[in-house]
Amino acid sequence: MFKPKLRQLPYKSRIVVAYPGMGLNNGAPVLDLKDGELTEVQNGYSGAYPSFEVRPPRSNYATALTTPKGMGKRQDDYLVVQDGTAWKKWNTTSEEWDSLASELTSADCDIIDFMDKTILVNGTDKKYWDGSASGDISDMPASHFLAVHRNRLYTANTGNQNLNISALRKYDDFSTAGDAATIVVETRDGGGCTGLVQYRDHIIFFKATAMLELFGTNPNNWQMQVASEQIGCISHRSIVEVNGILYFLSNEGVRAYGGGSDPELISFNVQGYIDDMDRTRRAAAGTDGRRYYISLPVSNDGNVLLVYDTLTKTWMAEDDTAIIAF
Predict the structure, then answer these.
(1) 3-state SS string for 33-45
(2) CB neighbours (10 Å) of residue 109?
(3) CB 127 within 8 A of CB 136
(4) Which residue from 118, 106, 121, 145 is spatially nearest to 237, judged by alpha carbons?
(5) Checking CA distances to 14, which of 5, 84, 142, 244 falls within 20 to 30 Å?
(6) Would you place residue 36 in the very low, low, confident or very high pLDDT band (cuts 50, 70, 90)?
């Protein structure tokens, strides 16, 4: 009969201190996670990093909209929105929405201030509001996106490759020879514009798989440079500048761009959500001055609000709120 000899084996132990506030990571194998990283989180907040904290509460502002299509502001004085077919501003005195224009096409819009005008475009309508009266802009190409640089208004459309530039200080002049201009932004894919932004004293024109930069201030010195013909933006409303860095959503995930090199992919830690992203619906992003918030559409008509802390380089998830615009 075999009788094993039992003996006491030495062992070691250690106390593991985990701080469950070092961010979300659902893009790496579980065994590769750092102490404190979470595979799943809801309503997390990085304010007490590396400790975990629940996000601050939200509060309602203004009364509910029926069919929100876009949001903007006028000179930090008024909140303006397109609600279905109506353009409205919030009246803080009467606490109700005042109508600026009606019978618009019910489509996603872009809103921007230029000189003393607030401009709205939605691919069909081209409207202005000067603080007292609103009207149509006749001499402007049909546009989905707006940007302002050095006293000129820039517009673009998803259906073509044109970058339209207004005459100097004119919101309603896109045809004066030698002053206004249209630049055809040609790339290998031939696609239309997907985003437009002013960044670091120049204009960036995005396509789904390309990124081009326009430098200069007038027809005599405009110069278009290709930043990438592999990397682009798939949602205009995902483009947000935070502390000098431009963040946007590409086909591969969220990228950060500071100029001079390819935009860096920074969303590896939320790859689980990126893999589930629904590209048929638009993402929307915003910032509180430190964090990049992006409401990402995912499969089965769902959404997830992801938050990237630009100081700690960590991700958190808040909830499933479907945000149209920030």
Answers:
(1) CCCCCECCCCCEE
(2) 26
(3) yes
(4) 145
(5) 5
(6) confident
Kindly indicate the confidence band of residue 3, based on its pLDDT and cuts at 50, 70 and 90.
low
pLDDT tens-digit map of 281-320: 999 999 999 999 999 999 999 999 999 999 999 999 999 9
For 140, the 3-state DSSP assignment is: coil
Length of the chain: 326
State mean pLDDT over 246-275: 96
pLDDT > 90 in the chain, percent = 87
Taking CA 283 as the corner, what is the angle to CA 291 and CA 201, rounded to the nearest 5 degrees?
A: 60
* Structure tokens given for 217: 């201030």
Sign for the CA dihedral angle at 280, 28, 248, 302 comes to: positive
Token pair in block for residue 219 = 């027809």
The phi-psi region of residue 323 (left if phi > 0; otherwise alpha if psi is between -120 and 50; otherwise beta) is beta
Q: Identify the pLDDT of residue 1.
A: 57
CB 235 within 8 A of CB 194: yes
Q: Which burial class, exposed, middle or buried, applies to 187 when counting CB atoms under 10 A from its CB (0-12, 13-18, 19+)?
A: middle
Give the burial class of 152: count Cβ atoms within 10 A of its Cβ; 0-12 exposed, 13-18 middle, 19 or more buried.
buried
d(CA 143, CA 109): 9
Peptide bond into 50 cis (omega under 30): yes
Residue 5 binned pLDDT confidence (cut-offs 50, 70, 90): low
258-265: long-range contacts (C-beta < 8 A, 24 or more apart)? 259/200, 262/227, 262/228, 262/231, 263/211, 263/227, 263/228, 263/231
> Phi and psi (nearest 5°) for 131?
105, -20
Residue 80, both tokens: 């303006």
Q: Looking at 27-31, 42-46, 241-245, 301-305, which range is the least confident one?
A: 27-31
Q: Please tell me what DSSP assigns to residue 178.
A: T
